[in-house]
Write a structure and sequence with these properties.
Helix content: 10-25%
Strand content: over 45%
Number of domains: 1
Distance between the termini: 37 Å
Radius of gyration: 16 Å
Number of strands: 12
Number of helices: 2
Length: about 180
């Protein structure tokens, strides 16, 4: 199908303004086909000595994905093969509104595991107190919003990107089910 299809993602402006604390220009959501890291359901670990970023354990996928950056091919680096984390639509999530930190992995660099080419470690930004955030899952338990460090996005960002993808008709867009209404 078409490669490098771009659609306007004006909703990103509001989310970026929340994150950056300042107005920003409209961005473009880029939907394209390639190899990417999927961190939607990733668990993350602290990076010793770094209180701004975490290491998230993501999967390596091939196919269509969305991000703010153009798709790129797998690149050889001194650390190993590098891909970038991108988004693929989710079907359900738990909305969490506590002060627990979470990781923002969109468009972040990832190194493919040399021993497991289906896995990648991604360096993601640590976020907190930006409003309700999602834990992408198919099941809700009382510990969902209180256990571990996860890759996430705000509820608002998730709903906005889902709507943008629904309008693009390139990636499947699923009705979002909130499991803890």
């Amino acid at each position: 199908m078409r490669d490098g299809i771009a659609i306007a993602w004006a909703a990103y402006v509001a989310a970026a303004a929340l994150v950056l604390g300042a107005p920003v220009r409209a961005q473009t959501l880029k939907v394209c086909e390639g190899t990417f890291a999927l961190c939607t359901v990733a668990w993350c670990d602290p990076i010793p000595g770094n209180d701004k970023q975490v290491n998230c354990h993501c999967t390596v996928n091939k196919g269509y994905s969305a991000g703010l950056q153009d798709c790129s091919s797998v690149v050889e680096t001194p650390k190993g093969q590098q891909v970038f984390s991108r988004y693929f639509p989710i079907k359900s999530y738990v909305a969490c509104s506590n002060g627990r930190p979470w990781a923002a992995c969109g468009d972040k660099p990832c190194v493919i595991d040399m021993n497991n080419p289906q896995a990648a470690d991604c360096t993601c930004d640590l976020k907190k107190d930006l409003g309700p955030y999602v834990v992408a899952t198919g099941e809700y338990t009382p510990a969902t919003c209180t256990s571990g460090l996860v890759s996430s996005a705000t509820v608002q960002e998730t709903e906005q990107v889902t709507e943008a993808l629904r309008n693009s008709k390139v990636l499947p867009s699923f009705p979002l089910e909130v499991l803890n209404k």
